[in-house]
């Protein structure tokens, strides 16, 4: 039995050793290296999805920004598959941990910002002030824009963590409601179960969307700075 | 206990009897199926192996003590365990590897497991195993019903539904993608081949043209030869005129003219020998007739005639006035 609501989010241990690293590396096993020109169905579909996503993401970038394509596609595929694997019963989702998401968000964001400041210092600094502000508001606005700039990685990480954690928690809660209602009123339990099914569908969608949003935002930050 | 002596009927006989009476023939007698099963239980694999080997020998196979004789197991196992085949190879081919897997229960347990258990348990093995396993896990609280259970049911149910409904179409989509790729490459290959084929045809037509080029050269050669001949004739004529003009002595000319006339008549009367070949004749200029051209000029039409080799003129000679007179005297 679970002691509290957050038991599913604890780091899984095997013989006292945390196996988080193994779990994080597991999605790579689901992407076999294509050896031939014409591959099996799984690899074909993966290649098709990768091509579709990369075209969608990197279309708007200039050549300098497009050097980040591999990074973005890896990021997107990793977060997608980690989230989807987390939907399986009794499994652990690494992306529900804030530490992991911060570890992904901060280096990526910092990379874009540093690149911007190194290559286009004036333009990067100019981004700190929106066009057409009245003169007396400038100092305040610069401060606000700086704060919003530094909040970007935090927002990225917390967004992903909150969505995944909240989704899993909701599933758990509604499941426990169904369990409690089974003894009381079967009909209500069935309704709750229907809600649970709908929520599961939503969770699958959220898993995909959140991954896409994360990657898209990082690519936007890159666009600003290249 | 004495082992039951089993006289094995042939498979066809057995089948026919089974169909007729719903019973199994053992020792020439018809027995109930339960008896057969009893025999199976007692003798089990050995009996069946003997039966199989009997049939295989009847068909001409050598029955060695090897795994392949155990035809109870699926063909898949047979193929996979090929490395363990120590006996002599079967003369006939082993059963082919099936293209698609057998039915699978729970997505985990293949149908062959139940077929394996069939002799011991019968048809009910699937249901009993399923129910019993679930009840055991629940009763002993090896699997506990938690809120997670319901989310499990919804998640797994959703996944199964999606796979069953859209699985085939996704597979077809993947196949279509591959086919498109192959079609693109095939098209590129075909266009390249066509390009090269067109180049080959062009070269061949050019070669054919070149073959016929010699006709053109022949015609040109003939044209040039004709032009040259015309030029030579004109020059000869002018030379003759010039020569005649140079030696303008009236009396000699009159004498010449008279004698030439006679010569011309003689030349006409004289037959030309045709039985000799072309090379034995010599082309010699002979004056055919003389036309007064102007008041002080005369046009001598010179005719080329063939004279036999017997004449002392074997080569062509440039005639001058003395030669002309000499010939005239001779002709006289």
UniProtKB/TrEMBL annotation, chain A:
<feature type="transmembrane region" description="Helical">
    <location>
        <begin position="137"/>
        <end position="158"/>
    </location>
</feature>
<dbReference type="InterPro" id="IPR000568">
    <property type="entry name" value="ATP_synth_F0_asu"/>
</dbReference>
<keyword id="KW-0812">Transmembrane</keyword>
<feature type="transmembrane region" description="Helical">
    <location>
        <begin position="98"/>
        <end position="117"/>
    </location>
</feature>
<keyword id="KW-1133">Transmembrane helix</keyword>
<dbReference type="InterPro" id="IPR045083">
    <property type="entry name" value="ATP_synth_F0_asu_bact/mt"/>
</dbReference>
<dbReference type="GO" id="GO:0005743">
    <property type="term" value="C:mitochondrial inner membrane"/>
</dbReference>
<comment type="subunit">
    <text>Component of the ATP synthase complex composed at least of ATP5F1A/subunit alpha, ATP5F1B/subunit beta, ATP5MC1/subunit c (homooctomer), MT-ATP6/subunit a, MT-ATP8/subunit 8, ATP5ME/subunit e, ATP5MF/subunit f, ATP5MG/subunit g, ATP5MK/subunit k, ATP5MJ/subunit j, ATP5F1C/subunit gamma, ATP5F1D/subunit delta, ATP5F1E/subunit epsilon, ATP5PF/subunit F6, ATP5PB/subunit b, ATP5PD/subunit d, ATP5PO/subunit OSCP.</text>
</comment>
<keyword id="KW-0375">Hydrogen ion transport</keyword>
<feature type="transmembrane region" description="Helical">
    <location>
        <begin position="67"/>
        <end position="86"/>
    </location>
</feature>
<feature type="transmembrane region" description="Helical">
    <location>
        <begin position="12"/>
        <end position="31"/>
    </location>
</feature>
<comment type="similarity">
    <text>Belongs to the ATPase A chain family.</text>
</comment>
<keyword id="KW-0813">Transport</keyword>
<feature type="transmembrane region" description="Helical">
    <location>
        <begin position="170"/>
        <end position="195"/>
    </location>
</feature>
<keyword id="KW-0496">Mitochondrion</keyword>
<keyword id="KW-0472">Membrane</keyword>
<dbReference type="Pfam" id="PF00119">
    <property type="entry name" value="ATP-synt_A"/>
</dbReference>
<keyword id="KW-0406">Ion transport</keyword>
<dbReference type="InterPro" id="IPR023011">
    <property type="entry name" value="ATP_synth_F0_asu_AS"/>
</dbReference>
<keyword id="KW-0999">Mitochondrion inner membrane</keyword>
<dbReference type="InterPro" id="IPR035908">
    <property type="entry name" value="F0_ATP_A_sf"/>
</dbReference>
<dbReference type="GO" id="GO:0045259">
    <property type="term" value="C:proton-transporting ATP synthase complex"/>
</dbReference>
TrEMBL record, chain B:
<keyword id="KW-0999">Mitochondrion inner membrane</keyword>
<dbReference type="Pfam" id="PF05405">
    <property type="entry name" value="Mt_ATP-synt_B"/>
</dbReference>
<comment type="subunit">
    <text>F-type ATPases have 2 components, CF(1) - the catalytic core - and CF(0) - the membrane proton channel. CF(1) and CF(0) have multiple subunits.</text>
</comment>
<keyword id="KW-0813">Transport</keyword>
<dbReference type="InterPro" id="IPR013837">
    <property type="entry name" value="ATP_synth_F0_suB"/>
</dbReference>
<keyword id="KW-0496">Mitochondrion</keyword>
<protein>
    <recommendedName>
        <fullName>ATP synthase subunit b</fullName>
    </recommendedName>
</protein>
<keyword id="KW-0472">Membrane</keyword>
<dbReference type="GO" id="GO:0005743">
    <property type="term" value="C:mitochondrial inner membrane"/>
</dbReference>
<keyword id="KW-0138">CF(0)</keyword>
<comment type="similarity">
    <text>Belongs to the eukaryotic ATPase B chain family.</text>
</comment>
<keyword id="KW-0406">Ion transport</keyword>
<dbReference type="GO" id="GO:0045259">
    <property type="term" value="C:proton-transporting ATP synthase complex"/>
</dbReference>
<keyword id="KW-0375">Hydrogen ion transport</keyword>
<comment type="subunit">
    <text>Component of the ATP synthase complex composed at least of ATP5F1A/subunit alpha, ATP5F1B/subunit beta, ATP5MC1/subunit c (homooctomer), MT-ATP6/subunit a, MT-ATP8/subunit 8, ATP5ME/subunit e, ATP5MF/subunit f, ATP5MG/subunit g, ATP5MK/subunit k, ATP5MJ/subunit j, ATP5F1C/subunit gamma, ATP5F1D/subunit delta, ATP5F1E/subunit epsilon, ATP5PF/subunit F6, ATP5PB/subunit b, ATP5PD/subunit d, ATP5PO/subunit OSCP.</text>
</comment>
<dbReference type="GO" id="GO:0046933">
    <property type="term" value="F:proton-transporting ATP synthase activity, rotational mechanism"/>
</dbReference>
<dbReference type="InterPro" id="IPR008688">
    <property type="entry name" value="ATP_synth_Bsub_B/MI25"/>
</dbReference>
<comment type="function">
    <text>Subunit b, of the mitochondrial membrane ATP synthase complex (F(1)F(0) ATP synthase or Complex V) that produces ATP from ADP in the presence of a proton gradient across the membrane which is generated by electron transport complexes of the respiratory chain. ATP synthase complex consist of a soluble F(1) head domain - the catalytic core - and a membrane F(1) domain - the membrane proton channel. These two domains are linked by a central stalk rotating inside the F(1) region and a stationary peripheral stalk.</text>
</comment>
């Amino acid at each position: 039995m679970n002691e509290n609501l957050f038991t599913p989010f604890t780091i899984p241990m095997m013989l006292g050793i945390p196996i988080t690293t193994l779990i994080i590396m597991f999605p790579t096993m689901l992407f076999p290296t294509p050896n031939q020109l014409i591959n099996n169905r799984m690899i074909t579909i993966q290649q098709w999805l990768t091509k579709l996503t990369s075209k969608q993401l990197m279309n708007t970038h200039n050549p300098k920004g497009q050097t980040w394509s591999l990074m973005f596609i890896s990021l997107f595929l990793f977060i997608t598959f980690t989230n989807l694997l987390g939907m399986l019963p009794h499994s652990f989702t690494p992306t529900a941990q804030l530490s992991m998401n911060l570890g992904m968000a901060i280096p990526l964001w910092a990379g874009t910002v540093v690149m911007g400041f190194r290559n286009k210092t004036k333009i990067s600094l100019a981004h700190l002030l929106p066009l057409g502000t009245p003169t007396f508001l400038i100092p305040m606005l610069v401060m606000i824009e700086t704060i919003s700039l530094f909040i970007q990685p935090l927002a990225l990480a917390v967004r992903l963590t909150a969505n995944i954690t909240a989704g899993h928690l909701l599933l758990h809660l509604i499941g426990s409601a169904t369990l409690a209602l089974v003894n009381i009123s079967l009909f209500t339990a069935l309704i709750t179960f229907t809600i649970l099914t709908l929520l599961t569908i939503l969770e699958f969608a959220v898993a995909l969307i959140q991954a896409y949003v994360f990657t898209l935002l990082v690519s936007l930050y890159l666009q600003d700075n290249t | 206990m004495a082992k039951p002596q089993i006289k094995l009927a042939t498979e066809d006989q057995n089948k026919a009897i089974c169909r007729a009476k719903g019973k199994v023939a053992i020792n020439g007698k018809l027995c109930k199926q339960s008896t057969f099963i009893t025999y199976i239980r007692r003798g089990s694999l050995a009996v069946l192996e003997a039966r199989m080997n009997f049939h295989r020998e009847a068909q001409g196979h050598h029955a060695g003590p090897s795994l392949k004789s155990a035809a109870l197991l699926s063909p898949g196992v047979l193929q996979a365990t090929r490395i363990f085949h120590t006996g002599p190879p079967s003369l006939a081919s082993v059963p082919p590897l099936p293209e698609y897997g057998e039915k699978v229960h729970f997505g985990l347990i293949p149908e062959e497991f139940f077929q394996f258990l069939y002799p011991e348990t019968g048809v009910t093995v699937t249901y009993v195993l399923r129910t019993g396993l679930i009840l055991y896990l629940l009763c002993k609280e090896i699997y506990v019903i938690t809120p997670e259970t319901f989310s499990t049911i919804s998640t797994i149910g959703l996944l199964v539904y999606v796979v069953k409904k859209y699985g085939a179409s996704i597979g077809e989509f993947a196949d279509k993608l591959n086919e498109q790729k192959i079609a693109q490459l095939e098209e590129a290959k075909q266009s390249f081949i066509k390009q090269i084929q067109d180049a080959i045809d062009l070269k061949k037509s050019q070669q054919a043209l070149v073959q016929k080029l010699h006709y053109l050269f022949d015609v040109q050669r003939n044209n040039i030869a004709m032009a040259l001949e015309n030029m030579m004739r004109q020059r000869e004529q002018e030379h003759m005129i010039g020569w005649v003009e140079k030696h303008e002595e009236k009396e000699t000319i009159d004498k010449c003219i008279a004698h030439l006339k006679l010569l011309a008549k003689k030349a006409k009367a004289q037959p030309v020998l045709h039985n000799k070949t072309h090379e034995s004749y010599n082309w010699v200029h002979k004056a055919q007739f003389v036309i007064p051209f102007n008041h002080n000029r005369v046009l001598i039409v010179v005719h080329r005639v063939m004279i036999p080799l017997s004449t002392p003129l074997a080569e062509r000679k440039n005639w001058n006035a003395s030669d002309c007179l000499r010939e005239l005297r001779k002709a006289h």
